[in-house]
Design brief:
The complex is a heterodimer.
Chain A (H helix, E strand, L loop, with lengths): L3 E2 L7 H29 L7 H9 L1 H34 L5 H8 L1 H4 L2 H12 L6 H4 L14 H11 L1 H12 L4 H9 L4 H30 L2 H7 L7 H12 L4 H25 L21 H29 L15 H9 L1 H34 L3 H15 L2 H12 L14 H11 L1 H13 L3 H9 L4 H29 L5 H4 L7 H10 L3 H24 L14
Helix pairs in contact in A: 1-14, 1-17, 1-18, 1-19, 1-20, 2-14, 3-4, 3-8, 3-9, 3-11, 6-12, 6-15, 8-12, 9-11, 10-11, 11-14, 13-14, 14-19, 15-26, 16-17, 16-26, 17-20, 17-21, 17-23, 19-20, 21-23, 22-23, 23-26, 25-26
Chain B lengths: L3 E10 L2 E11 L4 E5 L6 H9 L6 E6 L2 E5 L2 E2 L7 E4 L11 H11 L4 H14 L15 H14 L4 E5 L7 H18 L2 E6 L2 H7 L2 E6 L2 E6 L1 H6 L4 H6 L4 E12 L2 E6 L2 E6 L7 E5 L4 E4 L7 E10 L4 E7 L7 E5 L9 E6 L2 E4 L4
Parallel strand pairs in B: 3-9, 3-10, 7-8, 8-9
Antiparallel strand pairs in B: 1-2, 1-4, 4-5, 5-6, 10-11, 12-13, 12-15, 13-14, 15-21, 16-20, 17-18, 17-20, 18-19
Helix pairs in contact in B: 2-3, 2-4, 3-4, 4-5
The chains are: A mainly alpha, B alpha+beta.
Chain lengths: 568, 354
């Protein structure tokens, strides 16, 4: 249907806009990942197939590969149990204070891995501000029990349970209420209904959630870095980091091969996820939420268990972190008299690197959020209104940098930007810009999804009415689509900001002196033994994130349904 | 203002033929209703005229200008065709005044003149002074008036209405019908109105095009549609006419023809054709007589439906038990089971296919 359109220039505003969108995706998503593949599979590429096979056969790499798969599977199983049970309790029973429970179950989405790891280390370490007063802390000088494979797996299991929780919760919404009621009238009790009806129907959601969790686990850097490196439990992400920070860009080919392995594992996980959701049913409009199972006298007990678990896993670690940030020095017990805000003053006013990190992360996250929001409206609009094969391909490519582990993207970005770019002759390696370019690719999908959800809710007649009124494509986009899609795009921008603000996996390989991010700062301070300062930076960034999350939650009634993941 | 001419228009969606070789000539200033069951292609036809769809074959012309043909399209935004949607399609982020003034803003009409024309358009639909309201603050009927005012302000050559009253309740519908008629009288715009409600179509339109499976079955004035349906489908769809087999006896003379209908000799109106086929009977053209009266259809009363002033009597004719007849009687009806005769006082020999 490529009808020649009369009286319209072939080169118009709409085409310019489409070109901008396409260039954005090609530049920030396709170029780095394509470069990585080219280096690996072209004969004169920096990686080359023989290097891939040589790296694969090296002892350290194969150990890291085995560890990665092991930790990925084991932590995924733990996440599955926590997320599934949590989602079933919240979704199917009459426990009270559900919004609070949902928020706590999804807390790991707001607390980045390196901060979670630090919090747990402080909770279970010898100087624990929580356990020490109770006499439960390990004696001073003992090794933190989390410095171990079990520690890595345990913490990743908790950190990623939110992914399963979200997936199962969304799946529960597609379970037709009448199937549950039919089982009830057939005489089945709640447990039977859960096992015979609900769980079988939830299988796709469980499999998809578990696959995503696996992808998240193998791509995690913060937890294996803070727990695994001292525990001598090396995963692919930490091996890449150690090689590259130890030997510099001359081992780029070798770490590229490792990144490809990681990308391969992730791709396998994503294929499983796609297959699981192949026959995905979207919740039918008339599908009323099923009435919760009445727990009766068991309700108090159930609430006790769930709250106990969440306080232990979501609240206490952050409390311990806050405690550490307030003590005078490691080993000094926390009390009202000894508490001090010195570390906060230090990181905010005295130590230049942390001050820079706050500025850098705010600028990077802000720029990425604005750019993604601006590009996601025209991109989302063509995806929703003209789902042609080429557009769908662009849409899929836009997802890749977010779906694949962040460290894969940063290796790919180093490959693209290490040498000054041809033609323009400008080098971006070692600057602020390489981190921004990586973020622009990495967080596009995060901002695009809510925008698309919002765009789908716009009645197409509103655009057709504008067209009948004489408005051309660009004008319709600016005067009709943009204002209506803005709340969703803003929600996307907020998600991008929160994620980028605390991000570590991408910037850990791309930062350089002067261009530190907050995530890098927490990691470096801890690495150098400035635990109290690391805790202070962490507390500040968690508070900032929670504040933003709180603000958008208050604003949620102006947002399209499903724009905020923790409200899904 | 301009007429609309469709020539051999075909539109397929994948393998489904949504519009099948439609020819239609709508004269300037005419009010035409497109009537048909859901899925008959009436909305697709409207969207082809608006320019939201491209025809696979055939052409669409506005006045003398061909605006659509395969491979060559004047985009919808260049057609100056007003459209009123079932969902009103008012932009929620703009005020009523901004909604109505949008087509003028697009055309860079200076703001003073724009304000004036918006006020005029709103006054014409009885909403003067509501410029600053938001669409969400208005009732359904008011919203549809705003949509109408939007077409008014842009001085559309043609106004298309896609089931504009489907979301309104019954009493509002009647007043909006009056609004549409007044709009038509005041502007003289060519109006094309899609609906599945035949009484709406008959009440509003100069001519009604009945569509079925992508084709136009008949396009004529409402009275004609009822009195002289061209096909079985039109006869049944409009006024739920009874279609029964008719066996022609002799030639037509003076617009009538002798025919045998369900075993009875009758005189049917006809348009000159004298082929065997079917007859369209209406309840008001049937009369209940005794079972032995010559020239009547013999049958048995199946059931009675009381409707107040009259009673509808359902009769099963011996000659065709599968084609039940019904007619109205004002006095005491015969009981169910009674044998009766039905005399045809008025019937129409359907000329078209059946």
């Amino acid at each position: 249907m490529s009808a020649t359109v009369v009286g319209r220039r072939w080169f118009n505003g709409e085409h310019v806009l489409l070109a901008v969108v396409a260039v954005y995706i090609l530049l920030f998503a396709v170029l780095p990942l394509a470069r990585l593949l080219v280096e690996a599979f072209l004969p004169d590429g920096a990686i080359g197939l023989d290097l891939v096979s040589r790296v694969l056969s090296s002892r350290s790499a194969s150990a890291a590969l085995v560890n990665t798969v092991e930790a990925g599977i084991a932590s995924t199983l733990l996440s599955l149990v926590i997320g599934l049970v949590g989602a079933l309790v919240v979704g199917l029973t009459d426990v009270r204070l559900k919004p609070a429970l949902v928020f706590l179950f999804l807390m790991p989405l707001l607390v980045p891995a390196q901060i979670a790891a630090l919090s747990w280390l402080e909770l279970l370490g010898p100087s624990s501000a929580i356990l020490a007063p109770l006499g439960l802390a390990p004696p001073p000088g003992t090794r933190n029990p989390l410095y171990s494979p079990e520690g890595v797996i345990f913490l990743m299991g908790i950190e990623h349970s939110a992914i399963v929780f979200l997936s199962v919760r969304a799946g529960l919404r597609t379970v037709p209420r009448n199937l549950v009621e039919a089982a009830r009238s057939a005489g089945a009790g709640p447990m039977r209904i859960v096992f015979d009806v609900v769980l079988p129907l939830l299988r796709p959601a469980m499999v998809a959630g578990a696959a995503l969790t696996f992808v998240a686990s193998i791509g995690n850097f913060g937890i294996p870095a803070l727990l695994g490196i001292p525990g001598r439990y090396t995963l692919l992400t930490t091996l890449i980091y150690q090689r590259l920070s130890g030997f510099g860009p001359r081992v780029l080919g070798e770490v590229g091969a490792l990144a490809l392995m990681l990308a391969g594992l992730a791709a396998a996980g994503l294929v499983v996820q796609t297959l699981a959701l192949r026959h995905h049913r979207s919740p039918s409009a008339g599908n009323v939420a099923m009435s919760p199972f009445v727990l009766g006298p068991l309700r108090a007990a159930m609430e006790g268990i769930v709250w106990g678990f969440l306080i232990l896993t979501a609240v206490l670690p952050l409390a311990a972190l806050t405690g550490t940030s307030l003590i005078k020095a490691l080993g000094v017990p926390l009390s009202f008299d000894s508490a001090t805000l010195d570390h906060y003053r230090y990181v905010l006013t005295e130590y230049p690197a942390t001050r820079r990190a706050f500025v850098n992360s705010t600028a990077l996250a802000g720029l990425a959020a604005v750019a993604v929001a601006v590009i996601s409206i025209p991109l989302g609009h063509v995806v929703v209104r003209r789902p042609r094969p080429l557009i769908r391909l662009l849409d899929g490519l836009a997802d890749a940098p977010f779906a694949l582990p962040g460290i894969v993207l940063s290796i790919a970005c180093i490959m693209v930007y290490l040498k000054p770019l041809p033609v323009i002759g400008v080098g971006f390696y070692g600057t602020f810009w390489i981190i921004l370019f990586a973020y622009l690719g990495r967080f596009l999908a995060l901002g695009l999804r809510p925008t698309i959800a919002g765009l789908r809710q716009i009645d197409v007649a509103l655009e057709e009415a504008a067209q009948a009124s004489g408005a051309g494509a660009l004008r319709r986009l600016v005067t009709v689509v943009r204002p209506l899609a803005s709340p969703a795009a803003m929600a996307g921008a907020v998600l991008v900001f929160m994620s980028a603000f605390n991000e570590l996996t991408v910037s850990i390989l791309l930062w350089s002196s002067g261009y530190e991010t907050l995530g890098v700062m927490v990691f470096n301070l801890y690495d150098e033994g400035h635990t109290t300062a690391a805790a202070a930076v962490s507390v500040l960034s968690v508070v900032a994130t929670l504040l933003i999350a709180g603000l958008v939650t208050v604003a949620a009634r102006w947002l399209p349904r499903g724009a905020l993941p923790w409200q899904a | 203002m301009a007429g609309v001419t469709l020539t051999g228009v075909v539109k397929r969606f994948n393998d489904v033929l949504a519009v099948d070789a439609v020819d239609m000539a709508i004269v300037e200033g005419e009010f035409v209703a497109l009537l048909g069951p859901s899925g008959c292609g009436k909305t697709t036809l409207l969207r082809l005229i608006a320019g939201f769809e491209t025809p696979d074959e055939g052409t669409v012309a506005l006045g003398d200008e061909v605006v659509s043909m395969p491979g060559r399209m004047v985009p919808a935004e260049r057609r100056r065709i007003g459209m009123v949607f079932q969902s009103y399609a008012l932009w929620p982020h703009m005020t009523v005044g901004e909604n109505v003034g949008y087509p003028l803003r697009v055309r860079r009409v200076p703001s003073a003149e724009r304000r004036h024309r918006v006020a005029q358009a709103l006054a014409a639909v009885g909403l003067e002074g509501l410029e600053e309201r938001r669409p969400a603050e208005l009732s359904g009927g008011q919203r549809q008036r705003v949509a109408l005012a939007r077409c008014l302000s842009m001085e559309s050559r043609v106004v298309l209405l896609d089931e504009p009253l489907a979301n309104l309740d019954a009493h509002l519908r009647e007043s909006m019908q009056a609004e549409f008629r007044a709009f038509h009288a005041a502007t003289g715009a060519t109006m094309i109105y899609v609906t599945h409600d035949q009484s709406e179509a008959m009440a509003l339109a100069d001519r009604v095009a009945v569509m079925n499976r992508g084709r136009v079955e008949q396009m004529t004035a409402p009275a004609d549609l009822y009195r002289r349906p061209a096909t079985d489908m039109v006869a049944q769809f409009v006024g739920r006419g009874m279609v029964v087999p008719a066996e022609v006896r002799g030639g037509s003379a003076g617009g009538s023809i002798r025919a045998r209908v369900l075993g009875a000799e009758t005189l049917l109106r006809c348009n000159g054709s004298a082929a065997n086929g079917s007859a369209c009977l209406r309840p008001e053209g049937l009369e209940l007589v005794g079972p032995d009266v010559a020239g009547s259809i013999v049958g048995r009363v199946v059931s009675l439906t009381y409707t107040g002033a009259t009673t509808t009597v359902h009769v099963r004719a011996d000659a065709a038990p599968d084609r039940p007849l019904h007619l109205h009687v004002a006095n005491e009806p015969p009981p169910p089971g009674a044998r009766v005769g039905v005399r045809v006082t008025d019937g129409w020999l359907i000329p078209g296919k059946h």
